[in-house]
Specification:
Helix 2 links the parallel strand 2 and strand 3. The protein starts with a helix and ends in a 14-residue tail after the last helix. It is α/β, with parallel strands linked by helices and 392 residues long. The chain has 2 domains: 93 residues, Fe-S cluster assembly (FSCA) (GMP Synthetase, Chain A, domain 3), CATH 3.30.300; 272 residues, Rossmann fold (3-Layer(aba) Sandwich), CATH 3.40.50.300. Helix content is 36%, strand content 21%. It is built from 14 helices and 15 strands.
Length: 392
């Protein structure tokens, strides 16, 4: 083999390490490298982006340049950006195995654990809980998807700091990806040098409207929106899918049960009696939908004061009361997964678009949210009757 051939081969191996930020696959596997050659120390790499105006063009170009420069003998890199043809995009969709007519999470063979985060009343911190659960699970190395199903009150993009729009490939939508922050990524790579870090893929109706425009839709439109999020969006292989549902027992809750009958419910409530009463109704809806309530998250429990004392702004013990009531109503144990205190760091993290489990992991709310996520992940997955992806 000539030196020229060796450099070309080494360049392709280096490009194997470049991961497309949206597809989460090497660009060499998804047809994005049109050509890659080396001549007199200069690497010329032709990259095909999925669409013109790709929001991650600069990121991909920089990653290609950095990967190529790791090869001994390459001193300069010329990255030439092009775009896939309709035929190439069609081949990409086939390669990804995406079908807009199928809901992969409703398949009996799906290995993705699906949780719907629900509440009886609004304002109990359901969306904050969803964002922090997703962040904590991603920090544990999991591939997490989040569907912001609260169409009228969407807030997940802001809580996760997402400003990038989805990428649309005909009828397939590539959702924005939230990677681990630098500190969490470095900690993960130090402890797991041969395993990719986790991430969060997110879709929300808020990504398709201008500014702070309100959404005024009725039942059929809401059902169709949720259905499209589950069928048209390419999430890839996920470990966990979280859905942030609107409060109450209305259209979206019913549609979710129809589209994702295997989803389990995580019920969020404050300790306040009024909130617990309404949360109980949201939990007992599972008797009609035949879904399981996986546990209760008590939010806004006692606030720790500067002098170390606590103030029970919304009372105490509501989570335990709700757990007992649902056990009696449903006929099985519904555990209290944890109590998350009122904490300024939780609010400030949400305002900054960085969940508290990332921004202040040692704070009272950060450690409590992490503990809740750990308890959710400890629950066993039922693999009976499922086809496992084994190769012999």
């Amino acid at each position: 083999m000539s030196d020229h051939e060796s450099l070309d081969t080494a360049l392709m191996r280096a490009l194997d390490t470049v991961i497309d930020p949206e597809l989460r696959k090497p660009i060499t596997e998804v047809g994005m490298v049109d050509s890659a050659t080396v001549s007199e120390g200069v690497a010329t790499v032709a990259v095909l982006l999925t669409i013109e105006g790709c929001p991650l063009k600069n990121t991909i170009e920089q990653d290609v340049r950095e990967a190529a420069l790791t090869v001994d003998g390459i001193e300069q890199v010329d990255v030439r950006i092009g775009y896939m043809s309709p035929e190439q995009r069609s081949e990409l969709k086939k390669l990804l195995g995406h079908s807009s007519r199928a809901n992969p999470f409703a398949s009996p063979d799906s290995l993705t654990k699906v949780y719907a985060v629900v509440s009886g009343k609004g304002g109990v911190g359901k969306s904050s809980a969803t964002a922090n659960l997703a962040a904590a699970m991603a920090s544990a190395g999991l591939k997490v998807g989040v569907v912001d199903a609260d169409v009228h009150g969407f807030s997940i993009p802001g809580l996760l700091g997402i400003t990038q729009p989805p990428t649309k490939l005909e009828e397939m939508i590539l959702p924005p990806v939230v990677p681990l922050p630098e500190a969490q990524r470095q900690a993960w790579e130090k402890g797991h040098p041969h395993q990719d870090p986790g991430f969060i893929k997110v879709i929300s109706i808020g990504m398709f409207v201008e500014g702070n425009q309100p959404i005024a839709w009725r039942g059929p439109m809401l059902h169709r929106a949720l259905e499209q999020f589950l069928t048209d969006v390419y999430f890839g292989d996920l470990d966990v899918l979280l859905l942030d549902l609107p409060p109450g027992t209305g259209d979206i809750a019913i549609s979710m049960a129809q589209l994702l009958p295997g989803a389990q419910l995580l019920l969020v409530s404050t300790p306040q009696v009024a909130a617990v009463d309404v949360a109980e109704r949201a939990g007992t809806l599972s008797l009609q939908t035949e879904q399981k309530v996986a546990g209760i998250i008590e939010n806004m429990s006692a606030m720790v004061m500067p002098d170390g004392s606590t103030m029970e702004v919304f009372g105490s013990g509501g989570g335990e009361v709700l757990s007992q009531r649902l056990r009696d109503a449903l006929g099985y144990e519904v555990p209290l997964l944890g109590s998350v205190p009122l904490d300024v760091s939780l609010r400030s993290g949400g305002d900054a678009g960085v969940p508290v489990v990332w921004s202040a992991p040692d704070s009272p709310a950060g450690s409590a949210m992490q503990a809740v996520a750990d308890r959710v992940l400890e629950q066993k997955r039922d693999l009976a009757g499922k086809a496992l992806p084994l190769n012999f």
